[in-house]
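quick one before i forget lol
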Amino acid sequence: MWALIKKDLAVWIRSPAIMAVTLLPPLALLLVLALQAVAVTSEPVAVVNQDTGGRAAATLVQTAEAFDGFRTQLLSPQAAQAAFADLQVAAVLTIPRGFSADLAAGRRPALVWAVRNFNADSTNDLRRGLPDVVTSFLATGAAGADPIGITIREQDVHPHDVGLVAFQMVGMLAMLMLLAGLINAGLAAVKEWETGSVKELLISPVSPLSLIAGKVVAGVVAADIAGIVVTGVTIAAGLLTPPTLPQALIALAAMTLLATFGAGVGVALAAALRSADRMNPVAINASFYLFFLSGGVVALAYLPPWLRGIARVIPNTYAVAAFRQALLYGSTAGTATDLLWLAVAAAAGLLVGIPALRRGLAH
């Protein structure tokens, strides 16, 4: 078994194509999601201040410029209309003349919020953004007594906010671990049939279980190496903060268990397909579907009920939850349950893969 592990790892290290098949799909998807995040979280907005001498109007402009939900630029009415018509800004906020005086006199001036409704998602982000700006403006006291009288007491679940790319990165990490387990263990087994070396293995004085264990362990070790390298790169890039030792051990345990599940399924696929040309597309497509079905892009609570039901039986769901707690929020809350479900999934993967590969070796 140890000889097989060393042999498979040596083949993996010397095979750039296998590394590319393992690493490129998750990284390419991460790049797509990162570009999407830049596109939809930084919508340009023009502000037209027609109350140029008003103190309250100046404070509202400063509040809008400080808001992180969109990029704000102060323009003249003509320049704002031209930018709006030329699709250079997504919305225009107009502060009318006499805005500050009306507030001081107890009157209720109207803000004009022109929004380009390309699609419901981006448009609703803009519509929700203006009330946030106004609420922050009222909190400054520049409008006098708060005419609304609403006090918001935010109670966050997590100790700090995280960026959208970092939030999605841990979903990518789960996808990577599953794909690495599938590809590395599966291709290591497939190569025995493609090269004909399976005959030599079968006539050697080694039990089939040792052969299978060598393939699975080598696939898991290769997946762990890939996961550790990618995690280290994301920490060096500033997307993730360095975890403490307990958090790092939890993340490593989740990586190993998910990779074990992937390796078990991978050797089962190898026994059925016996070809790298058939193995690779099946593994990549399965990893992509499980990534989206397990809440890799958004929090599980945001998914529709039928999709949450599917996510509860997908191992990626529990790996993503453990990664987010350990690597994003610096917490270990709930990770014991996640690791337990991952252990069950890993055992199920082995129970599927070992008998399948044994039957494949026997035939």
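fyi The chain has two domains: 2-36+161-362, 43-139.
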